Amino acid sequence: MNSFHDVRFPLSISFGATGGPERRNEIVLLTSGREKRNARTARSRRRYDAGTGVRSLEDLYEVLAFFEARRGSLHAFRFRDPFDMKSCAPHETPGLFDQQIGVGDGQRRRFALVKTYGEGPDAYQRPITRPVAGSVFVAVAGVQKTFGTDYSIDPDTGEVVFEPHATPAIDEAVTTGFEFDVPVRFDTDQLSASITAFKAGQIPSIPLVEVL
Predict the structure, then answer these.
(1) 135 and 57 in one domain?
(2) Domain residue limits at 71
(3) pLDDT digit string (tens) for 104-156?
(4) Verdict on whether the full-model pTM lies above 0.85
(5) Contacts of range 38-44, beta carbons closer than 8 Å, 24 or more positions apart
(6) Fewer CB within 10 Å, N side or C side of the chain?
(7) pLDDT score at 201
(8) How far apart are CA 94 and CA 138, in angstroms?
(9) Are 97 and 167 in contact (CB under 8 A)?
């Protein structure tokens, strides 16, 4: 990832944003009338428009200041997805057994956070690289581990890193619960706003795109 500022886009504005995951698929219509479909990318990518979350001129100024501090699209930052921000459903509280992130082999100490969508062979595992500080709970073989004593979180990758004495043994499942942000950048290098238009009810466009 290029330059990343470990700061969060204004929460009050992000909760009014619109957007979600985007897939890139190629669909070819064959002469037989059937379709041939291919996935162009293995992962989905999220796009948002934060403009719908701007409720006042104060909000607009806050976004403009944030935009300038990030140098437009140059630096990525944290964004709280209003629809998908936990290891569980939005209305639930994260628990120790929300997501299984691996099985111990007696030597492996680093486990990447993931969130699984769907079940069985069609399930999609989404990498989570920006967990919220203090929100990651970890269990090994059903027993909760202690942050700072048994494990830490890599600030650059979001991985769970076990201390040597707490390395998961062979066949021990590693499970977690957490909250997370999405790494994004501005998908534009110009923010255009008009006070007259804003007061008339016109919403400015503030496009954001996930950084993979």
Answers:
(1) no
(2) 1-84+182-212
(3) 999 999 999 999 999 999 999 999 999 999 999 999 999 999 999 999 999 99
(4) yes
(5) 43/126, 43/127, 43/212, 44/124, 44/126
(6) N
(7) 59
(8) 11
(9) no
